[in-house]
Amino acid sequence: MERKSRGGDHALLSLHHTMKAVVTFLFLLFVATHAEYRGRPYVRDKVCHEFKTMGKDDFRTMTLIMNSRKFSNATFEEISHLVHEIVSLAETCCADGVDPSCYDAGSSALSAKSCSPDSPFPAHPETAACCIHQGLEQKLCLAALQHPPRQLPHYVEPSNEELCQAFKKDPKDFADRFLHEYVSSYGQAPLPVLLGSTRNFLSMVSTCCISPSPTVCFLKEKLQRKTLSLLTLMSNRACLRLTGYGKDKMKFSYLTMLAQKIPSASFEDLSPLAEDAAEVFSQCCDSVAEDCIQQKLSEHTTKICTTLSAKDKRFADCCAGKNIMQNYFCISALQPAVAPKLPELQKPTNKQLCDDNGALHTRRYMFELARRHTNVPDVFLGKLYDASENVIRECCSAKDASTCLDSKRQQMGVELPAFLEKANQLCGQYNELNFLDFKNRLRDSIRQTRPDASPELLTQLTDQRADFASTCCPANSPPLYCVAQVTAELASTCKQGSCMLV
């Protein structure tokens, strides 16, 4: 048992490096893109400096983390092959007295191996295009390849017993596999958060699996890591949304979510908070500052509580906690409120849409729409946001802007009510009912529209609809995945080319 403990501690220690080393390592990963201007010796010298500074174990661990993040759809075996080659190259060519040409020759061999038909490295659809090039151009092209971030995390935490069984069998392999699975699932979270969360988890396992009371130990440790675990999950979702949407649409997304949680608040109350949230994540998602996201989110939460606590009891209850990060998680988890009875929605005029404040008028209109349809999540309203931007871009530059806008309004007037009603019904039922009752309601609804469906087809259609709702109705749904699902649904219900929202 003592031997296993030391193995686990050794695996854990490879994460205990300074943030300065992480910053430098990040710089190292991207430095190859500038190699044309700085020269190959510069790249070799940086790699060797970091290999010697960090040590082989830390260098290997960071290589594993960064490549699991970069190639999020790769298998553990593919990442392991790549890590092995990178570390071997550094170990061989960074030794004292080795000819400087060693690194260049080794990196060329690594590129050639990437281009071979039976390459063991992570697959990428653009690898073949890179391999047409030669020399430095090929290396730069291959170095720039990466997978799109995972929209749906695939990491599922094993039971305590399964964790300890795998840990005791091989602590190093356990740590490697955990890092790959966890990092590839939550790779959009800020790097300091990701490193802190993985280090904390491995520390928990190495402590509790040799504890005389592992169940009590895990219970205590998981309670202590709750804030860090939630921060990883939440920041991954938010940064994924920022990556998929861009900063401007992120503002719209956050404004929509706030408007649906507290529809009694005004645009003037919520718009600055949405601006602030987008600024927080745009500053912190790619930052390697150790406390960026915690500090900025704490400041943002204070602004939310100062503005909204007196206007809504649910917000007041969330803001009453002593842990400000937990207060933010509480606010994020609030379900949409019941839509209040509000005056008839006034649409922006043609002149307003095409003036210098057109984007502001559109955002205000979307806010008013969101607070009147609180069960329609922003992935659905986002389609309307995109359509509105397309219309403004097309019509406001046309010779006869008013005629163009009037035509688009007429078309949207036909599509929008049915679209909102369908989304409101699906997500409203999902929010209000427990999942079993929701599925039964879905089955009954599908049976009415598809009376000829066999029991097997009925079950299949119900499961598909339920999966879609459970993934895309929550406020923090994966944006690109759900936008694609909504687009596919719209395309199946309208004639080719006739729908503005597709």
Q: What does this protein structure show overall?
A:
With 502 residues, the chain is mainly α. It is 73% helix and 0% strand. The chain is built from 26 helices and no strands. Helix 22 crosses helix 26. The chain starts with a helix and ends in a 9-residue tail after the last helix. Residues 1-8, 10-14, 16-20 and 23-39 have low confidence and may be disordered.
Blueprint of the fold:
Blueprint lengths: L1 H12 L5 H13 L3 H4 L1 H15 L1 H15 L5 H18 L7 H15 L11 H5 L3 H10 L15 H10 L1 H15 L5 H18 L5 H11 L1 H20 L1 H15 L5 H18 L7 H17 L4 H7 L4 H9 L17 H5 L3 H15 L5 H18 L5 H32 L2 H15 L5 H18 L6 H15 L9
Helix pairs in contact: 1-11, 1-12, 2-4, 4-5, 5-6, 5-11, 6-7, 7-9, 10-11, 11-12, 12-13, 12-14, 14-15, 15-16, 15-21, 15-22, 16-17, 17-18, 17-19, 18-19, 21-22, 22-23, 22-26, 23-24, 24-25
Mean pLDDT: 87
- The geometry reads as globular
Helix content: over 70%
Alpha-carbon Rg, integer: 26 Å
